[in-house]
């Protein structure tokens, strides 16, 4: 089941971004999913699902947005390494 949501945007937003409405919506879904992943709200697989892309494509988007694919802080990583 899917839910359709309507968002009102000024007509000139698409020309300012040099895109069409369909591409804009896809990029907006991807950007939101990347941000929610970055702040730890979503897993990679759920974020990819929300973005409407494969997990591999989502990992490529993380790189494009300069977001680490790892949800571990440096402190958590150090603690994990210290346990071994």
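Q: What amino acid sequence fits the structure above?
A:
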């Amino acid at each position: 089941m899917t839910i359709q949501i309507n968002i009102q945007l000024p007509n000139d937003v698409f020309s300012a971004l040099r895109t069409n409405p369909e591409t804009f919506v896809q990029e907006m879904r991807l950007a939101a999913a990347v941000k929610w992943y970055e702040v730890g709200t979503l897993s990679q697989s759920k974020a990819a699902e929300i973005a409407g892309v494969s997990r591999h494509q989502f990992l490529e988007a993380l790189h494009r947005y300069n977001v680490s694919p790892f949800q571990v802080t440096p402190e958590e990583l150090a603690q994990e390494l210290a346990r071994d």
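Q: And what stands out in the fold?
A: The chain has one domain: 14-83.
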